[in-house]
Amino acid sequence: MGMDERKMFVAQLGPMPPPHGGVSTNMLAIHQALRQNGHDSVIIDVANRNENADVDEVLKPRSAFGLIRLLLKLDCDIVHYHIGGEFNTKLVFLTLLCGLLPGKKSVVTFHSGGYAKKIADMARPLSLRGFAFRSIDFLIGVNTQMIDMFSRYGVPKERTRLVLPFELQKPDQDLTIPAEFENFAKNADPFLLSVGALEPEYLNAFLIESMPAIIERFPNAGLLIAGSGSMRAGLADKIDQMKAGEKIVLAGNVNHAVLLHLIERADTVLRVTEYDGDAISVREALFLGTPVVASDNEMRPDGVHLLADPVNATDLVDTLSAALAEERKPEK
What we know:
- The protein has 332 residues and is α/β, with parallel strands linked by helices.
- Helix content is 37%, strand content 18%.
- The two termini are 32 Å apart.
């Protein structure tokens, strides 16, 4: 750190993995960069889970009151709150709290492209969400839809900035993939990989129900679904009822280093959702040269094979066929 650069103490709020997603990836990258440059950094995990990634300086308040007390007590310069998914009333009040903390600057990074799209015509400055956003000193959006949303809520342009949320990397070649994943990938042709939470908006049930149509076209196809969530038990029952256990695997939370290998090994990565933001798994797949089939959220990067209908099995199979015919072109 240079003589003229003041040491900062930054506290970030957001969900820690597992599961490993774009929000946590962005938080961890900032956390590591701050520490590498001589600054103090702490992460406050606001997810309702008991398990955490093995990361230094992670605090997990046990209640909303404990979170408020921690934020008031913490002697940090900047509170950086990361919002993903729905911007519900609970998150609105937490945003207001961050914006009104005495003696601290506040930053919000909004990661939910799906929410920004959905709220576009309803955002109003004279609303609770408008007041919450304007209480924040600086707002970051990860795509132009989010920046437009801030403007609709009355946030001055000079207090917003567009910042892409991803940092792409190659898989660690010294890492060994767990045997169950290695064997599944080796025996599946094509090996299909879906990455996302096991929640309704990720349309995992549709993917599972579409496997007979996929297998009719590709008899040796296998689908591995990485991620966890509230629908796991129901999806497992659906797989059992279809007697498709050898063709479909719910892998649960997969370590990100292992996931990068699976993305590189996959013949196609699937990202089929009701709504979605700038999914890091899509960016990683394209970076590694793996074809991607995804629902159209109006913000997919070039090179993605878009579904005309996100819940039509015939369209899925046809789009998948086009993706599998594509020549792999990893970035150098």
